[in-house]
């Protein structure tokens, strides 16, 4: 089966590579010629563990191709995936569907025989019907169906998530489209991964509801963490005690600096807008957005308090700026709130991140990039842990504290404990939802 994948970002590239690994012939299209050139040289434009190897394997096997020629990619394809971005539209919080609709028009012009046009991008309810209308209008002779196939992969674990999904959701209108989609995902059917077939709107809603639910879970535990700080409870024990309840589950119960990334912030905002548009405000989701925003600002306050309210002239070493470990993605990362706020207050910022620099250099002007946590902490007044990269999980805290000009740490991922920090010679330590010392 030939498949075309329009958009080679985090989702399109991983999906295209994995579908080729299923044995399909996959042509990935992007409208950025530089990206396509890189891919054709065997270079991966993003950091995602395992992706370079799997890509090379399937290119060598002659079933994975990259091009900026959309018409050539679509010719003879049974399924054409749209995996372009749906960022927040400036000003109103809606998902910006410009890229999806542009792709739909380009696909319409290039369709030759019957194909299923599959939206993998996260899109509001009704978008798949809109894609259908757009294609039919642009090319009244086109023979096609649409399908909604939202993606649930997590950056940093994307290949495993795609290859071993909790479920695949496919929204369709007609059996013919369902049959093509069954063929696309046949290797997963054969290995008994749940494939849920629904109507278009339910598939679209599942994605937003799932992301809003997870964002709510994170925000809930962050709010409980704030209350722990006031009352002397320890959020680590609380999370563990809650998570052991099978009805709750342990995942997404880690307190931290608030959710970020390319999905939760924009998808919660989009869901809130969808609710408002239908005269049914999504009150829980709207509150989650507000609480998460406040939480991020509170994190800045924690760091300022750690330095007695004065950060002007102080040197602060920030460990981790990507929105989570194992990705280079900086979209809506907590660092984008915290770092500029500290610089604005007059601090000198040193930043360490194993893969964040390429993206981060433009986004965080005025910081000093350093390769190594120990060098960054040397003569600094505070160390702030913002992303829990493995590299930062087992630091020699004694060595860090010894060479700091004032040994203070804000551990916003709760990697260490007050006891660890005290033993290592830190003078002050704050974390999220647990005992501090100063
Ligand atoms: P991205 O911004 O990383 O990639 C989008 C790519 O599409 C870019 O390379 C861009 O050049 C290309 N593109 C845009 N218009 C095009 C066109 N007309 N023709 C060819 N290429 C075009 O985006 P992403 O993070 O991969 O997200 C894509 C979609 O998947 C979004 O809707 C997102 O919400 C959803 N999603 C993302 C994740 C994630 O973890 N990143 C997870 C699940 C779902």
What this model shows, in words?
By secondary structure, the protein is of the alpha/beta class. It folds into 2 domains: 2-198, Rossmann fold, CATH 3.40.50; 236-438, NAD(P)-binding Rossmann-like Domain (Rossmann fold, 3-Layer(aba) Sandwich), CATH 3.40.50.720. The protein is 45% helix and 14% strand. The protein has helices at residues 10-21, 33-40, 51-60, 70-74, 98-110, 127-138, 158-163, 175-184, 186-190, 200-231, 235-243, 264-277, 283-306, 335-344, 357-363, 373-377, 397-402, 418-424, and strands at residues 2-6, 25-29, 64-67, 79-82, 115-119, 144-148, 168-172, 195-198, 315-319, 348-352, 368-369, 382-385, 408-411, 428-430. The strands form 2 sheets. The chain has an 8-stranded mixed beta sheet, sandwiched between helices. A 6-stranded parallel beta sheet has the order 11-10-9-12-13-14, with helices on both faces. Helix 6 (127-138) links the parallel strand 5 (115-119) and strand 6 (144-148). Helix 5 runs parallel beside helix 6, helix 10 packs across helix 12 and helix 10 runs parallel beside helix 13. The chain is elongated. 47% of the residues are buried. The structure holds nicotinamide-adenine-dinucleotide. Nicotinamide-adenine-dinucleotide is lined by residues 6-12, 29-32, 35, 83-86, 99, 102-103, 106, 121-122, 151, 153, 155, 262-263.
């Amino acid at each position: 089966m030939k498949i075309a994948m329009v958009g080679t970002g985090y989702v399109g590239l991983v999906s295209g590579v994995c579908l080729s690994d299923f044995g399909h012939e996959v042509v990935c299209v992007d409208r950025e010629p530089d990206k396509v050139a890189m891919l054709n040289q065997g270079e991966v434009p993003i950091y995602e563990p395992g992706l370079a190897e799997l890509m090379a394997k399937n290119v060598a096997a002659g079933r994975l191709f990259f091009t900026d020629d959309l018409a050539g990619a679509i010719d003879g394809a049974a399924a054409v995936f749209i995996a372009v971005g749906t960022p927040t539209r400036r000003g109103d919080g809606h998902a910006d569907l410009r890229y999806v609709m542009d792709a739909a028009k380009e696909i319409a012009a290039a369709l030759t025989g019957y194909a299923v046009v599959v939206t993998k991008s996260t899109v509001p309810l009704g978008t798949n019907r809109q894609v259908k209308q757009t294609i039919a209008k642009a090319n009244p002779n086109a023979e096609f169906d649409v399908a909604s196939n939202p993606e649930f992969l997590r950056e940093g674990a994307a290949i495993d998530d795609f290859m071993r999904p909790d479920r695949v959701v496919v929204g369709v209108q007609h059996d013919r489209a369902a049959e093509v989609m069954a063929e696309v995902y046949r290797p997963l059917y054969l290995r008994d991964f749940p494939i849920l077939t629904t109507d278009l709107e339910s598939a679209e809603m599942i994605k937003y509801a799932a992301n809003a639910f997870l964002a709510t879970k994170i925000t809930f535990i962050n709010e409980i963490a704030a209350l722990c700080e006031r009352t002397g409870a320890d959020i680590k024990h609380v999370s563990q005690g809650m998570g052991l309840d099978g009805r709750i589950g342990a995942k997404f119960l880690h307190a931290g600096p608030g959710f970020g990334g390319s999905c939760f912030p924009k998808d919660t905002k989009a869901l809130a807008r969808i609710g408002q548009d239908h005269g049914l405000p999504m009150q829980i989701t709207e509150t989650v957005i507000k609480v998460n925003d406040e939480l991020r600002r509170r994190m800045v306050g924690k760091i300022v308090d750690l330095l007695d309210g004065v950060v002007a002239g102080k040197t602060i070493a920030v460990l981790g700026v990507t929105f989570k470990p194992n990705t280079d993605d900086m979209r809506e990362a907590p660092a984008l709130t915290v770092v500029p706020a500290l610089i604005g207050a007059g601090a000198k910022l040193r930043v360490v991140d194993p893969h964040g620099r390429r993206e981060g250099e433009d986004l965080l002007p005025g910081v000093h990039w350093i390769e190594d946590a120990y060098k960054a902490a040397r003569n600094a007044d505070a160390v702030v842990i913002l992303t829990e990269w493995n590299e930062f999980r087992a630091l020699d805290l004694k060595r860090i504290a010894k060479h700091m000009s004032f040994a203070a740490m804000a551990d916003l991922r709760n990697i260490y404990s007050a006891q660890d920090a005290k033993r290592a010679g830190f003078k002050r330590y704050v974390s999220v939802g647990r005992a501090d010392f100063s």
